[in-house]
Structure formats: structure tokens, C-alpha cells
Amino acid sequence: MWVYSEKVLEFFKNPKNVGEIENPDAVGEVGNIVCGDALKLTLKIDKKTNRIIDAKFKTFGCASAIASSSALTEMIKGKTIEEASKITNKDIADYLGGLPNEKMHCSVMGMEALERALANYLGKPIKKETIGEEKVICKCFGVTDKKIIRAIKENSLKTVEDVTNYTKAGGGCGKCKPEIEQLLKEFWAKEETKKGVLGEPKKLTNLQRINLIQETVEREIRPRLKADGGNIEIVDIDQKKVYVRFLGACLNCPAAGVTLKKVVESKLREFVEEDIIVKEVKE
Fold this sequence. Notes:
Radius of gyration: 20 Å
Number of domains: 3
CATH topology of the largest domain: Sufe protein. Chain: A
Number of strands: 8
CATH architecture of the largest domain: Alpha-Beta Complex
CATH class of the largest domain: Alpha Beta
Structural class: alpha+beta
Strand order of the largest sheet: 1-2-3
Helix content: 40-55%
Largest sheet: 3 strands, antiparallel
Distance between the termini: 58 Å
Order of helices and strands: HEEEHHHHEEHHHHEEHE
Strand content: 15-25%
């Protein structure tokens, strides 16, 4: 028997913002009724301020799915696109006072619906790990390797049971559990190689850090920006602070703040150091 917080029960029994916005500015749909959970999120956005002025949802699922979806709409109303883009599945669960481990996938579904809606509004492609274009590991629920790896990374998952709780992978026939176990082993093995002796993070010299930053920008960041008509220039590097200037279509893009954090800073933290800070130079 699962134990739900009072806030989960309240949002389930008296859900807020149920329905669908007529002529929405953004739509995000995730899940599949056949697999047990589905969510459609619609948003109304003030185009002058890029602020979400209304949000509604339609959910097919359990009490946690309904509560998570309703909570998400309350969390994002009044926020700018940049602010909303920073909301994670953990934020949704925390807002509800916690969710049973077996129901954490409901908060992940909310986060993915929000990501799709914002990408829809900005006219950008959805992240591959959220749309299942890679290898399907769990055929019962259509969960890909990319989605599993993302869940492992963002939530520090260590067991197959953890992965099932956050993604539903392995929760059907169970035939995919050996593959999930292998993904866990490979991911954490790679994480260990990033660390030095006794598990301490490997320390970089200033020269090594600068070279890695430049390589990452050229390999991981610039091609992605140029694909959307934009570009980026490194203005300065001060220890772990990187100052950049956007060019082309990125220069006056309303989603520049999102790109700065979700693309530039995220990639530098992944390939250089976890505490890199990126700041935009506008002059």
C-alpha cells in the first residue's frame, strides 16, 4: 500500500487547471494510454514577456499522475519560459511533499510534457531522449536507452528497481531488466573514470580547462546552435567562469537564457567540470 502526502491527496481529489486551453500557444503530449499513463499539457503565453499566463492539463493515469500534472500547472503559471525550463521531476515531487518511489515516473512524465510544450512554443526539436527515437529497451512501455540513461544521471539511480520507479522500464514482463542492469553498470563505470584517486574529482590545470572548454564548444555546442541559425563566441575564461556572446539567430532570441543554461552550461558541465558557470556578455 502506497503512502501519499496530504498535498498529493488534495491535488488528486481536487485537481486544479483540468482541461485544455482553446487555441494554446504551446502543447506538450507524453505517454501512451495503452502503456497506462498519458498527459497533455497546454499553455497560454504572453509573447511580449514570454511569461506563462495559463496552463491546463488532461491526464490518463493514477492518483500520482493526476496530482503531478495538476501541481505542475500551478508551479509554472506566472513563470517565464526560462524559469519554467529549469523545473525538474524532483521539483514536482518536492512540491507535492514527496511521492512513493514506485510513482516517481509520474513526476518525470510532467517534466517531459513541459519540455515538449516549451520546445513546441520555441519551434525547436524535442530532445531525443524524450521522444524514443533510439533503441527501445523496455518494449512493454516503449522506454528507450536514452531515457533510462537520462533518468539515471539526473536522479542518481543505482538499481534496476530505481529505474523502474522513475521510467516504468522493467515494470512489465521484466525481460529488459538485464539490459537495464547493463546500462547502470556502464553509466556508473564511466562516471568513475571521471574521478581521480579515492573518488576525488580530477583536477584540471587552467590550460587543460581552457582547452577542454574550447573543444566542447566546437564539438558539442556550436554545431547545435548553427543548426538553428545561431552561433557563439567565447569572450573570456576566468578559472571556472566562462563568458560567452551569442551571435546570429541566438543574439536576440527570447529563449537565449534557456539555451545558455540548458545547452551551453549543461554541455560544459558534462564534458569539462561539474561546477562550471557560464555568463552571457551582451555588449
